[in-house]
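Moderator note: this is an archived Q&A kept for reference. The question asked for a predicted structure of one protein chain; the sequence and the answer are reproduced below.
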Amino acid sequence: MADSRLGKKSIFRFANHVMSSALLLISQCAGVYAFSEELAPSDNKSQQQIIEMLLSSIEANYSQIHSIEAALEEIIVNSEPSSVEYKTQGGGRITLSFPARSSVAYTTWISGDQVRRDSVSREASSPTDTFILTNNKWSQYGPSQKTAWLRRSDQMGGISQIDIRNLGVPIIGQTIASILQSGDVASAKIETGVDRPRKIVVDIKASYGEFRWIFDPEFGYLLTTKESRHSDGSLCDYCTLTYDKVLDGRAWMPVSLSRVIFKKGVAMRPDDKGWDQKHSIVVNRLVGINTVIPEDKFIFSPPDGTTIIDVTGEKPNIVSVGKKCRPVQRVQSSKP
């Protein structure tokens, strides 16, 4: 399997206010008590039954969480600082330095299928883009470039997962449930053993990669582990998720993701030495859960002078926002 670690060039883009076209390859790792009693040792569940039970568990958990406002921090730690020299379009050269550690802070709002993430970092090197998801379409605004992009979810490749309910999903336009329901599930099985509650192991083989998910009964059979391997069988990356109980113990809320990335041929286990990069997302503060989030929080109103690039139609459209700007309406592109 191809190396899915964050390359040095991707880290530079991460630290320099890039648009989502930058291939920032961060594979993310994202019910409550729906079926734990059904997993008796004598049960012989089919793959479809196991998937249906997982879907039931996810629905049981997140149907209770209607809205979320949370403060998060995303941290990338490299094994060592380095620098790379690149050629410029004018024939010159530029040297880019990559720190051993970089971080960015966000505020995230979620209401049903609507999602918004704003950067609140004050560091000059931190990205400041705003992302808004409404009706399965994304608005991304970069104030440093005064440019906004309008995209469908399937055009958002390369962006780290924004919806914290779906950490562990490598494609931003998909959810854990949608992948479980797709044709990409190669196998789904219950761990053997009778001495403890048994985890569920799901192997995914998709066009964008192959990986394994593990769902843990300790957290209501939500996703707790994601791992992928190189073509030689060595470990490529290993993600773990933790949860806290919310709503008086009636639901689980993801509060952290930890990911360790290895080069090919270095490690077979996640605790082996020689990691290349560590990536984490931490919920520092749960501001509110099931509180009312104003509807205009999910309306993108670009400031004066913004160039809007709408690629949701058959052809890209470019629109400039004048002094009297209104909430942007997506432009219907004409047929070629």
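Archived answer notes: The chain has one domain: 8-62+71-111+156-295.
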